[in-house]
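Regression report. Comparing outputs from two consecutive submissions.

Submission 1:
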Amino acid sequence: MEQYIGLDVSMKETAVSIRQGGKRIWRGKCASDPQLLSAMIRKRAPEAKRVVFETGPLSVWFYHALTAEGMPAICIDARHAKAALDMAANKTDANDADGLAHLAEIGFYREVRVKGFDSMLIRTLVTARRQLLKMRLQMSNQIRGLMKTFGLIVPKGAGSVFDRNVRTLLQGEVGLGRIVLPMLQAWGDIRLRVAELSKHLVAMAGADQRCRLLTSVPGVGTVTATAFAAAVEDPANFKNSRAVGAWVGLTTRRFQSGEVDHDGHISRRGDNKLRSLLYEAAAVILNRSTETSTLRTWALALKERLGFKRAAVALARKLAVIMHAMLKTGELFDPHAGAPAAA
């Protein structure tokens, strides 16, 4: 008879629950090691049908490691699982594992696509670079703020200009220099690390045909193209191109109950970083791009009618649809696509 396993994964230990024939037949704990878990499952549930666990920090590693061990691993949406797990009287790891095993048995879950390690490596690179950029900005702002207290206003400028301005103002300020110069050195080190990761990202994008294809879209640079290609992976993962906009969280929420029926803000589901990058690309098209295209003409008309923010969101959603279609067809961006035929 088939068995169904629920795993509540944590950093050190994983709670395990096994069900068969509508009843729990065993539950316990095991170290959070896919090999040890696989050995335990083979011993306790030799006819395992589904091994279910929620999305989380370890889910990518767990999924691929369990699959490599021959386990029928299934990763489910944690938000979907939460609604069912909250029905338990007490919130414990054991009860969560029981709930996941029950969901696995009745098939009431929403399976999510787990990215491959190559895609996660690209995503990690984009995330690390973004974090260092944020740290660099925070450090420079902190330096400006500290010097402003002593009447030293750092002029506008970035990179080597900022470094030169700070050192010039600190001449003769021995006490303050002992405090600020180490911070400036740290800022410079972060700047070098950002340059290294940027160079690595550009090289990675240049070697990827998908990224070279996506950068033909106005406003879409190396970072956005790389992040989008890594997130989508295979265009066949989506039923159609329109589904990508909803997947990234750029479609509006809808609330309907009785006579009440209205739309709200965008859902903000999915990849936050990718959604931000698409919004930034849309802002570039609306404010900085000079290339004439049907897409920009449509977006500018929308901006006049609805305002910048709504137009940027709509354009970001349209960009997601267009970029997926490009990956699917392998064609470069056509700036005149969708234009009415000449008479």
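Submission 2:
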Amino acid sequence: MGRYSTELVNEAAGPVTEGPDPAILAAAATGIVDYIKCGGGDIGSIFGNSGIAPEMAGSPTLKLKLTDFCRLFEEASKGTRCDNFGLWFGNQFQPRDLGLWGYAMVSAPTLGSALENMVGLFGYHQEQSVMSLGRDSNGLLRLEYQIRSPLIVDRRQDAELSLGMFLNVIREACGSGWAPEEVHFEHPRPDNHYEHSRAFDAPVYFSQPTNVLLFRDDLLSRPMPASDLTLMALSSNCLMQLSNTRNRPITLFDQVCSAIRSGLATGYPALEHIARELQVSPGTVQRELAQHGIAFKDLVESLRRELAMSYLRQRHLPISEISLLLGYSELSAFSRAVKRWTGAPPSAVREALLQS
């Protein structure tokens, strides 16, 4: 692994952590065992590295740790040598396989009400994450999704599979040939990014503030072909009862971490800017962070370090681009930061991480 390997791996293992691990219903992993097998992956190794038993995947009532769920798909991508594993898994995923949450969508009377159920019930399906349906300045609808837990840094596969799942909910009403106007992802552009445009049949943009499907609002009145109001009510009520004991809600600390992470690509995130974005005072942000024993500049440094280690594992990303994604005005400043964190330059860190 080279002479830097031990120090580098130890440095990469120290993420920002806060509070208990959020959960997700295991139905979101329905079919992954067979999909891994079809891709030639080793089930025991992939699930073992993820901390999940294969028989847990797909259970309609069982909860998984969201960190383990995201790790499962990252490990599946590595184990099958399919960089776009999450993209294609989500592309073939059927809404009913989401269990109670999925049935609450497909049994709605119209696509508009299906999307309302999707957004309104999302918190019962997955914790410390956000989903919203709004409108952009051009009048297009924005279905946005983002994990807000600071525990989870590597979440590209989850983002791609999730938007693929949501795409298929809309296609339930509009047909398999329907396509959004645009697709946005918060992670950097992957190596085989041309596959994303093919999967969504739409322009796809990377390194965006959040994960988004953009589409026209004339679809909302489309009828859902499997409308069943009784089933919709039953599914919704069962989902709420199943998830009535939740982990802690998204805190201001989580929101600050998310805002910093989202804003890094535009430069160093000033405290005042983050406070304005969250509609609180800078003093409120500082007091919140003080309660967790960390100053604002140290939190920015920690999040930059975590993301740097994640990006350096992506061989196709030039080091100069990683520097920009993390808000450094010059490559030399990024190089000095990496050397301060690890004792080694970025190229050596990348070599060690890729061999670990």
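Expected: both submissions complete independently.
Actual: both completed, but the second showed a warning that disappeared on reload.
Relevant detail on submission 2: Strands lie at 23-25, 63-65, 129-135, 141-147, 182-184, 204-205, 211-215.
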